[in-house]
Amino acid sequence: MELRWPVVEEAVRRARAEEGGPLCAYLYDLPALAAHARALKRSLPHPFGLFYAAKANAELPILQTLAGVVDGFEASSQGELEWLRSQFASKPLILSGPGKTDTELAAACRLGVELLHVESLGELRRLALIATELGRRVSLLLRLNFPLGPGHETSLVMGGRATQFGVELEQLPAVMDFLAGQEFLEVKGLHFHLLSHQLDAGRHLGLLEEYLRRFTELRAKYRAEWSHLNVGGGIGINYRAPESQFDLARFSEGLLGLAGRFEAEGVSVRFELGRYVTAACGYYAAEVLDIKRCFGETFVVCRGGTHHFRTPQAQGHSHPFRVVPIEDWRYPFARPKVEGERVNVVGQLCTPKDVLAKDAPVERVRVGDVVLFPYAGAYAWNISHRHFLMHAPPRELFLREGGEAC
Fold first, then answer.
1. In terms of Cα–Cα distance, which of 316, 314, 320 is closest to 239?
2. Is the N end or the C end of the chain the one with fewer CB atoms within 10 Å?
3. CATH number, residue 161
4. Could you report the per-residue pLDDT of 26-52, keeping only the tens digit for each?
5. pTM over 0.90
6. What is the pLDDT of residue 181?
7. CA 160: distance to chain centroid?
8. Alpha-carbon gap, residue 282 to 322, rounded angstroms
9. Is 302 a catalytic residue?
10. Which candidate in 24, 302, 350, 406 is catalytic?
11. What are the pLDDT digits (tens) for 181-204?
């Protein structure tokens, strides 16, 4: 997704002028999001479909922007499921995730999810009882966890090893035996989501080939009439080196080569992307409150912090940023500044872990300027410990055509 820096920086300056105090805000570039989502959808040839994983960012303007582009939404809780259904009455929905409660399973039946991803034999047994009691036929995918060969390691792995996700292959015979007598449960296929944060297009294509091989082998072994394969998300955002992002063009070209093989096997494939869809549309803006030196290091203290923007701590990186100069200076003393130095950008919290960027070079930054962090549109505000210290929340501004915010 193209980062429209001039548009966003101008929106920051307008927001700062309106604020009347230190600015702290999220800005979401909806036109850029729409363009990115359309390009992503176009890049997926038949039989590949695109669902959006709402856990990445479920703000309503984000969902509304995506609703006309994606094939459906994926929810991972009853709260997400009910929120999505209340806003999109007819949009196809998926429910996935470990540890589903009986009320969540019942809600999936009641709200008519297109597919429910089952994570264990125990969950399957409870679902069978609930579906029978409600008299609702449920279509489902079995999420499997199986070993992966070398070359499939990333910084976030959900399978191929001991995790809480999916059914281990050794347990699949017991699952299939149980399903044989279930009137209200219909298995449509399998769900493989073994890793995330993949930045290498070639390796991700290789993973899809492995998924196809496993799918066809298991379908033949169990003589099943499976036609659906959900491959989860997995495409990452390169926060450490933003200039080196996932090569979507190469990935799309590779998918063209794979598409015929999936079609020949009669398999419809679905991606469930979250981070890769929305991360680049979001920006976190934090005004500089203070600049201080301590033990030879320089600290730029901002309004906000990791209680608003947890992404750097959650991912363990120093987040990239730009400084937006703000010329308004309201005090009678000289404006504190640093030039041509390396700085640590920190927040207001009473913990030394409240660090957004570490040892980062700046040409110039002054108290009253705004530090602007890109790639803040996914797993950012929604995963932050927002009630810690009870600081006021950031504003949320959604940029429309022309850069106007609402």
1. 320
2. C
3. 3.20.20.10
4. 999 999 999 999 999 999 999 999 999
5. yes
6. 84
7. 21
8. 14
9. no
10. 350
11. 899 999 999 998 877 788 999 999
